[in-house]
Write a structure and sequence with these properties.
By secondary structure, the chain is of the alpha/beta class. The chain is built from 11 helices and 9 strands. The longest helix has 25 residues, at 59-83. The radius of gyration is 19 Å and the shape is globular.
């Protein structure tokens, strides 16, 4: 059954651009309403996150953000059909750098680098487009569905010469790849539990946040270059930000807090496109009640 839906998905992605866009908008809008109405847990998680992070915004605005977010989540998911199909020309036509030369300038000195990619919904589009320009390394989490897991790995390796490492492989292969000159494309803002994490503020609430960015930056003397992506009408726009100045400090908690503050700034500029469906505050400090 999984194979059938995947085949249908890729056939849809192969449609002419206008036809695909029109169909994707209708499907995403329809499914977003269904998820909002019947997906109680997903709706609850999204609205809870938005209420915690934007307590002074009206309830109506949070509902509208929630609906918009679900639509964009589904819409950008459908785009992975053409994104992972292996047609580099299509990706280049639909995923645009706003300052590619700035990235190349920052990488030109050969210093190890971490490309910091917060969980905006276009992060896979940015990855695919970046692999056409830079040989990178990244880490992934295995999916329970083996067919889907294989699809994701092949899709993310469709262009260039990237190295994809499972989290189960540990940090050594990652460090070795970075020492050989590969920038790390790293997603810093998911709740992976208390292991290797510290509790730092995210929109005023404690969130378990991994310290890997700070630790790897210090270990390899790597610069940290944020990369954010926004979606607009079937196209993606990748922005490369200046390397974070004076990073890391000697304190992993302080450095990790700095990363979260940067993410807060970017989120406020583009609220619906951040990954609110994720249980960002699932792990709680000792003695605090569960949120979800």
């Amino acid at each position: 059954m999984t194979q059938f839906w995947l085949s249908l998905w890729f056939k849809m992605a192969a449609l002419p651009r206008f036809a695909f866009q029109a169909l994707a908008v209708v499907i995403s809008a329809f499914l977003a309403v269904l998820v909002f109405v019947f997906g109680k847990e997903r709706r609850s998680v999204t609205l809870t996150n938005l209420k915690m992070c934007f307590p002074n915004v009206s309830g109506l605005q949070r509902v509208l953000w929630c609906l918009h977010h679900m639509y964009l989540y589904l819409r950008t998911f459908l785009d992975r059909g053409w994104l992972w199909a292996g047609n580099a020309q299509v990706v280049q036509q639909r995923v645009h750098f706003e300052n590619l030369e700035f990235l190349k300038t920052q990488l030109a000195d050969g210093q190890p680098a971490i490309l910091l990619a917060p969980h905006f919904l276009g992060l896979d589009a940015a990855w695919s487009r970046l692999t056409m320009e830079v040989d990178m390394v990244t880490m992934y989490s295995n999916q329970k569905n083996l067919v889907l897991n294989d699809l994701i790995l092949k899709g993310r390796a469709a262009y260039g010469n990237p190295v994809l490492l499972s989290r189960q492989e540990g940090i050594r292969p990652l460090v070795q790849a970075m020492k050989k000159g590969r920038p790390l494309y790293y997603l810093p803002d998911m709740d992976f539990g208390e292991k290797d994490s510290v509790f730092v503020d995210f929109f005023g609430h404690k969130a378990a946040t991994v310290t890997a960015v700070s630790r790897l930056s210090r270990l390899l003397k790597a610069k940290v270059i944020p990369v954010t992506t926004r979606y607009e009408s079937g196209q993606y726009f990748v922005t490369v930000h200046p390397a974070i100045d004076g990073f890391p400090t000697d304190d992993d908690v302080e450095s990790t807090q700095r990363v979260n503050h940067h993410i807060e700034v970017w989120v406020q500029k583009n609220v619906p496109q951040y990954l609110w469906l994720h249980k960002r505050f699932k792990t709680r400090p000792a003695g605090e009640a569960k949120i979800y």
